[in-house]
Amino acid sequence: MANVLDVAQYILQKQGPMSVMKLQKLIYYCQAWSLVWDEKPLFNEEIEAWAMGPVVRELYEVHKGSFELRSLDMGNSDSLSSEQKETVDAILGTYGNQTAQWLSDLTHFENPWNEAREGIPEGASCIREITLASMHEYYSSLPPSDNE
Predict the structure, then answer these.
(1) How far is residue 1's CA from residue 145's CA, in Å, rounded to a whole number?
(2) Averaged pLDDT of the chain
């Protein structure tokens, strides 16, 4: 199975340089829609409900201190199967042209992030997991898109 760094490397190769915030949100949506479309996770690392939206700590540890990334020193995009690449490509087609702030704001309107942060004051630190079950339940309840 691919790991989060493999997925991040693939996104950067396909989309080009981007802010770390945007990359984290694209990673989140890739995982969410993989659960719906492919009926399995894209990677095993947990997604946490940070104040600015979903974050994968393992990816954060690699880009910590950076604002923008062009590529990663780690991660192998060839680790993704053709099915996984199709899922990521569909996400990039839907969300890839949006700004980091737009993507962050979108996650704040959706149930998985809000449920994980229940009882946490706005802007406060939080490392609670956004569960795969909550992501699958929420995103599978949305109307189908043209990307399926």
Answers:
(1) 26
(2) 95
